Each structure stands twice: as C-alpha cells, then as structure tokens.
Amino acid sequence: MTDDEVARFVADRAADSTVTIATLGPNGRPHLVPLWYVVRETDGSKWRLASWTYARSQKAQNLRRDPRATLLVESGQSYDELRGVSLECDVELVTDLDTVTSIGLALALARAPEGTDPDAVRGLVAAQATKRVGLVCTPTTVVSWDHTKLGGGY
Questions:
Q1: Are 32 and 58 in contact, with CB atoms under 8 Å apart?
Q2: Distances from the Cα of 59 to the Cα of 5, 25, 95, 103, 149, angstroms
Q3: Residue 19 CA, distance from chain mean position
Q4: I want to staple 88 with a disulfide (CB 3.0 to 4.6 A). Which of 36, 81, 98, 141 is the partner?
Q5: What pTM did the predictor assign?
C-alpha cells in the first residue's frame, strides 16, 4: 500500500475494529491483546494511534519496562481479500488525567450509537480515567499488504 492508502486503511478500520498490540512480557515472550484505538494526527503527514488501558494491566507493565510495541490492523476473510498494516511503534504511556480522559472520550464517542449524549459519555469516561493510562503509539516502521490488488494472480 502507498503511505496514503496505509493511513486511510488504519483510520477507516478504527471505528469498527480493534488493533492487536504485541508487547514483551517479563519472560521475553510476546503478549498480544486487542485494543480499541483512534488515529491522532500530529502534523498532517504524521499520525499516531491512541488507546487506553488499565494502569495495572500486563501491557502497561510491559510498556513501562520496554516502551516498544508492534501493532496489527487487518481485514479480510479469504486470501484474495487480505489487507493489513503492521506498525512497529514507540509507545508513550500517558498519565496526565486530562489527556487520558480525552483519549477515552475519543474512543467511546467513536463507537457510540448516533445520537448519544456526549455529556453522558463524558461522565462515564471520567469515572474510568482515574484507573487508566493512555497509550500513544508512534510508528517507526510500517509494513503493509493488500491482496485485493493481486487480481487473482497468486
């Protein structure tokens, strides 16, 4: 995929899919879990993925020890439909309560049914935010594939 196709694919999947994040556990083995995510732009050409998790979760513990992760966004059921993006990322653990709440609100509103009262969501998110940390993932290496471009020639 081109850079623009990668950015569009990752953004389009955010509202109805998860990203799989791999961190290194204390024994050196990968720890894989799904996360909701939102895409955050940094300067128009760069983008980052943001999510949140419980501050005491295994992935948060792993990222405190080693702030690197590999993320996978994918789609497709049959071989000719497979598309995906693997992102090696530097991960910032965010503890600032306002920023954590902002990330949580963006995640919740992206998945809320149309017509949901944002103020009601804000209250629920604020109650959760004190137990959470934000994860801001900045891609350093991107690998992508799109089997829909193969035209059956594989």
A1: no
A2: 29, 8, 15, 17, 35
A3: 5
A4: 141
A5: 0.91
109 touches 121 (CB < 8 A): yes
**8 A C-beta contact, residue 19 and residue 51:** yes
Dihedral sign for Cα 93, 99, 101, 107, please.
negative
Residues 6+ apart with CB under 8 A from 140: 88, 89, 90
Burial of 55 (0-12, 13-18, 19+ CB in 10 A): middle
Helix segments in 15-145, DSSP class H: 58-65, 97-111, 118-129
User: Dihedrals φ, ψ of 127, to 5°?
Assistant: -65, -35
CB 9 within 8 A of CB 83: yes
CB atoms within 10 A of CB 93: 16
> In sequence order, what DSSP letters do the residues of 18-45 get, joined into one string?
-EEEEEE-TTS-EEEEEE--EEEESSSS
Kind of pairing, strands 47-54 and 132-146?
Answer: antiparallel
Of the candidates 42, 49, 43, the one whose C-alpha atom is nearest the C-alpha of residue 6 is 49
Per-residue tokens: 101? 């709440």
The tens digit of pLDDT for each residue in 92-116 reads: 999 999 999 999 999 999 988 888 8
